[in-house]
Amino acid sequence: MVIREASHAGSWYESSGARLSQQLDGWLAQVPDTTTPIGTASSQQGDVSIPTPSARAIIAPHAGYAYSGPAAAWAYKSVDWAAAKRVFLLGPSHHHYLEGAATTACDKYETPLGDLTIDKDLVSQIKQQWNLEIMSLDVDEAEHSLEMHLPYIYKMLALKNPSFQSDSTSIKLTPIMIGNTSPQTEQTYGTLLAPYLSDPANIFVISSDFCHWGSRFRYTWYQPPDGGAAGNLRSASAVSKDWKIHESIAAVDQESMDAVESGSHQRFLEQLQRTKNTVCGRHPIGVFMAAVERAEGFGAEDKGRMKFVRYERSELVTSLRDSSVSYCSAFAVM
């Protein structure tokens, strides 16, 4: 039996199961029972309950828990976990270059809370259908975009899923690492993922941070509020006294969130092309959006369309010397 170790435990998040469980409980407790979505359109559609019945898909961040753990709680608490039998986990590749996608060779994924069981039958099936690479154990354990979601998945199943409470091996995980995919490849993968969306036993976790701003990320985009020319900052003198850098970052992220909420894969691609926003999970998000566009009965009446409920940043940038990463949480009713 091959078990993927929790390689980032002890550095990116707590390695003690007891302390980690307590930490996750605390963040989940801070999420209210109702909230107003934060998309430009969704904010006008009234409050939503948390959790929301039939919510089966989320976008959530994957940074160290000290930074993104509280924001991720909003996505995880929004999901209706009770009937889940399988969790699809889609995340970007940060270290291993590929133009397609890859999945795991492991039997289990370790977390400090307990192990999650891989759906070996489905992994084998989609490996063939999608023509996926198989990650080496080194590649698998180096990638944090999948691992950072595992404790939250385990926690929510343990809290809300009766089958998991009786037998933790009864709920299976299907991890897919999405590479630097072209729009056409995202559409192809979306077509292959689409048939799984209608099954009420399937949960979809899409792993992504949003804007990575600063010279260390090679992205210093500044978008003036008056519609002036936007571009990467070269000098602090280009920053308006009335429109701080962090306000520009928020505006660009808002456009990205609105594009995702629109349900149009093309609109999302065009927004990223125009602003170059450094959304690291753009490709997993694109695959999911393409799947919703192709799934029978989806797209109409907002089915499968994300609603963003939380937006946070690691720092409020006011200087070219600063940097920040944005963390967004969203859910979709399926």
From TrEMBL:
The record ties this protein, via InterPro entries, to: MEMO1_fam
Protein species of origin: Corynespora cassiicola Philippines
CDD domains according to UniProt: MEMO_like
User: A Pfam family this protein belongs to?
Assistant: Memo
Family membership noted in the UniProt record = Belongs to the MEMO1 family.
Q: Which residues form a coiled coil?
A: none
The name this protein carries in UniProt is: UPF0103-domain-containing protein
